[in-house]
Amino acid sequence: MPGETSEAAIEGAVRLSGSRITSVLALLGENVTEADEAAEVARHYQAVLEEIANRELEAEISVKLTQLGIDIGPEVAAANLENILATAEERGQFVWIDVESSGYVDRTLDLYRNGRSNHVNTGICLQAYLYRTAEDLAALLPIDPSIRLVKGAYAEPREVAFRRMRDVDRNYFELAKTLLDGVRRGGVRAAFATHDQRLIQGIEAEAAERGIARGDLEFQMLYGIGTSKQKELAAKGYRVEVLISYGTAWFPWYMRRLAERPANLWFVMRKMGSS
Ligand SMILES: Cc1cc2nc3c(=O)[nH]c(=O)nc-3n(C[C@H](O)[C@H](O)[C@H](O)COP(=O)(O)OP(=O)(O)OC[C@H]3O[C@@H](n4cnc5c(N)ncnc54)[C@H](O)[C@@H]3O)c2cc1C
């Protein structure tokens, strides 16, 4: 994280833009249970969109529906999302919708479809570790969706998700090929959000085989992870976007980052031991 405030995140985005890398800003926080707080999150994002426009910065935002009040009721999150999408559309900006744990997937897809029917400037994340994702993707393709493909960051039971990394990777690659077919046909925006070098190389090769121009192939990564790879891909002419998270509610997010890579845990423990 470049810092806890949206200003720090925007400064981070400005720095990345010097390497032809665009940004997605995301305010940390989830499972909001008060309607006022959820509405405040929406207003915060509307202000951030305005600031991005004022600074003529190429940056998008990514929202979590549990932060916009989906636990209070889908209509609460839908209203907050609508406000954000309308503000973004006025300025030609784009809004991603994160996908959280598996219990939220149906409601998230419903709200995405609903939002997408009024505003084209929105995309949704899909998680390769879920068995259901191939079907979800097939069902979305007719509406010309924008999809960010990830492996998935939540601890899911084997009833719903692949547990072995090689199965997740295999599924990711299959889903990626379906998305690339959509990009080649036109209408689909696909963003491959992964730091996995093998997958990235495989996707580069599949895209080239389909005659997809580098400028139409998009990779996304997390701020500060794989920085040299981000620059290398951008220099090769691919579209590269970096997710910059900010805010004070970093604990659950930080724990997911640790879980993704046990080496990070040792790094933190060593730091704690030496301080
Ligand atoms: C832009 C973006 C948006 C995302 N949105 C969502 C979302 O909405 N829902 C969701 O469930 N998940 C989301 N994720 C997280 C995603 O699901 C993965 O948990 C995360 O990207 C790590 O998986 P990987 O594909 O990089 O592969 P991995 O196999 O986990 O990692 C490949 C390699 O990348 C490096 N690496 C990966 N993660 C880390 C790390 N934390 N620290 C240091 N090195 C690391 C390591 O070298 C590792 O060997 C998002 C990720 C990105 C980049």
What would you note in describing this structure?
The model has no long low-confidence stretch (mean pLDDT 93). This protein is 50% helix and 16% strand. It has an eight-stranded parallel beta barrel with strand order 1-2-3-4-5-6-7-8, surrounded by seven helices. Helix 2 (35-54) runs parallel beside helix 3, helix 3 packs parallel to helix 4 and helix 9 packs across helix 10. The chain is globular, with a radius of gyration of 18 Å. The protein contains ten helices and eight strands. It has 275 residues and is of the alpha/beta class. Residues 98-99, 125, 127, 148, 150-154, 193-196, 220-222, 225, 243, 257, 260-261, 264 line the site of flavin-adenine dinucleotide (FAD).
Write the layout of secondary structure elements.
Elements: H1 6-17, E1 22-27, H2 35-54, E2 59-63, H3 74-90, E3 95-97, H4 105-118, E4 122-127, H5 133-140, E5 146-150, H6 165-185, E6 189-193, H7 197-209, E7 218-222, H8 227-235, E8 239-246, H9 251-260, H10 262-274
Parallel strand pairs: 1-2, 1-8, 2-3, 3-4, 4-5, 5-6, 6-7, 7-8
Helix pairs in contact: 2-3, 3-4, 6-7, 9-10
Bound molecules: flavin-adenine dinucleotide.
Keywords:
single chain, 275 residues, binds flavin-adenine dinucleotide
